[in-house]
DNA sequence: TGTAATT
């Protein structure tokens, strides 16, 4: 048999390193059965690897075996979350047969709703939405076993009657998909931000005020207790603040339109715009170091093949060429209480004086695009990390002091 | 307390 059977399940594979292509993934998944189709998901326009894939086995049984053996069970090299193996959204996980029912009466129970929808098909799920205090929100979700049944219910029931206690006629529609919900959330956030139009902020005055504060704070920092190397950082921060107009004092709100795109602002008297240094792509066995050693010394859990010796090799080779996001254990620091407007490049600038920075990352809320005011900096050696911690922990910016510690190791849950 | 992503 060389074709997917009718009942085959298309799987979504998540948490795969972006340097792994179909040929690298194939050996990992082949051990559970013959593969019908395996496709790495790429961006439609840029062709960029999205870190996930679709996989269909010829036999449904293979998909179930792979899911059981791999889902949340293994972590591929360079990833910090376990691999995901589950039916793809397109497999009718539910959204296309799930209905939203609005304009119910407050007194209607799950069973009342169920009775109303039963004539149209088999119901998997029927729930009236309730507030925390148990009172009905006047709406419900009803999930049928098929899209057609759900559609039949819409055709017959939507707008067909007005229930006692409801302000208008019954609403029956397909429930929002995950994507629609996400979009709705983003629109809500956007509309809230729009309340603060740039015109309502006296930006000129704010900047002058900000810069005065920055200078004062920096002087305090320089004169007091900081080591010479931290003073270098302080001066750099002062320059950044003065030049990019963003200020490094946390602002109450960030306007939608940035005053100046800070990342685009050149900063004279500083090292030239620095990329992320270190870890340039290196062939697998460069410097006589086998790729397998790289995996282990880097403190990242490699994917371990259970039996077949052919599985690990392609992975090791692929892994050797990828750029690392974190440094070795003890080289990665966590920085909290960053100014709201600090970007990756500013974080990088702040910590450059302490050593070779492998990466600098400010954590950003994906929904709002706002900084979460913490980030990570990775050095190529533990001494630089310690120096940075000594110099910058407690560093005052505005009303806050930076908290600078070693990044919590993935495995341990010891608090610092 | 680190690129969670659905052709």
UniProtKB/TrEMBL annotation:
SUPFAM superfamilies according to UniProt: RNA-binding domain, RBD (SSF54928)
Keywords: Cytoplasm, mRNA processing, Nucleus, Repeat, RNA-binding
CC terms in the record's Gene Ontology section: cytoplasm; nucleus
GO molecular function: RNA binding
Alphabetical list of Pfam families matching this protein: RRM_1 (PF00076)
Localization, UniProt: Cytoplasm; Nucleus
GO biological process: mRNA processing
Superkingdom field: Eukaryota
Residues annotated as domain RRM: 9-90, 97-177, 331-409
Chief location: cytoplasm
UniProt xrefs under InterPro entries: CELF3/4/5/6_RRM1 (IPR034648), Nucleotide-bd_a/b_plait_sf (IPR012677), RBD_domain_sf (IPR035979), RRM_dom (IPR000504)
Family classification: Belongs to the CELF/BRUNOL family.
Name of the protein: RRM domain-containing protein
Source species of the chain: Pygocentrus nattereri (Red-bellied piranha)
């Amino acid at each position: 048999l060389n074709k997917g059977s009718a009942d085959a399940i298309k799987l979504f594979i998540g948490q795969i390193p972006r340097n792994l292509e179909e040929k690298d993934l194939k050996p990992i998944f082949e051990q559970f059965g013959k593969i019908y189709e395996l496709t790495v998901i790429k961006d439609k326009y840029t062709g960029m690897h999205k870190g996930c894939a679709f996989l269909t086995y010829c036999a449904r049984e293979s998909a179930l075996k792979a899911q059981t053996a791999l889902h949340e069970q293994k972590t591929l090299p360079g990833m910090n979350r376990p691999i995901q193996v589950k039916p793809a959204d397109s497999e009718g996980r539910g959204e296309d047969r799930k209905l939203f029912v609005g304009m119910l009466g407050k007194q209607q129970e799950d069973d009342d709703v169920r009775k109303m929808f039963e004539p149209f098909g088999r119901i998997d799920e029927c729930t009236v939405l309730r507030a925390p205090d148990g009172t009905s929100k006047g709406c419900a979700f009803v999930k049928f076993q098929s899209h057609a049944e759900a559609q039949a219910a819409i055709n017959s029931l939507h707008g067909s009657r007005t229930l006692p206690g409801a302000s208008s006629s019954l609403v029956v529609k397909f429930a929002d998909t995950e994507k629609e919900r996400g979009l709705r959330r983003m629109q809500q956030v956007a509309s809230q931000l729009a309340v603060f139009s740039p015109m309502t902020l006296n930006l000129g005055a704010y900047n002058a005020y900000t810069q005065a504060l920055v200078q004062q704070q920096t002087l305090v920092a320089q004169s007091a207790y900081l080591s010479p190397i931290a003073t270098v950082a302080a001066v750099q921060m002062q320059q950044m603040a003065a030049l990019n107009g963003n200020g490094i004092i946390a602002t109450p709100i960030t306007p939608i339109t940035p005053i100046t795109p800070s990342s685009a602002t050149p900063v004279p008297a500083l090292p030239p715009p620095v990329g992320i240094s270190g870890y340039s792509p290196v062939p697998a066995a460069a410097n006589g170091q086998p790729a397998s050693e790289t995996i282990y010394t880097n403190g990242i859990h490699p994917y371990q093949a259970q039996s077949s010796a052919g599985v690990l090799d392609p992975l090791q080779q692929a892994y050797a060429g990828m750029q690392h996001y974190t440094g070795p254990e003890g080289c990665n620091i966590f920085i909290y209480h960053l100014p709201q407007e600090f970007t990756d490049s500013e974080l990088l600038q702040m910590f450059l004086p302490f050593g070779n920075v492998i990466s600098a990352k400010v954590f950003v809320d994906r929904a709002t695009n706002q900084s979460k005011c913490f980030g990570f900096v990775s050095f190529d050696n533990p001494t630089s990390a310690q120096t940075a911690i000594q110099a910058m922990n407690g560093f005052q910016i505005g009303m806050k002091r930076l908290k600078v510690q070693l990044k919590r190791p993935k495995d341990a849950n010891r608090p610092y």
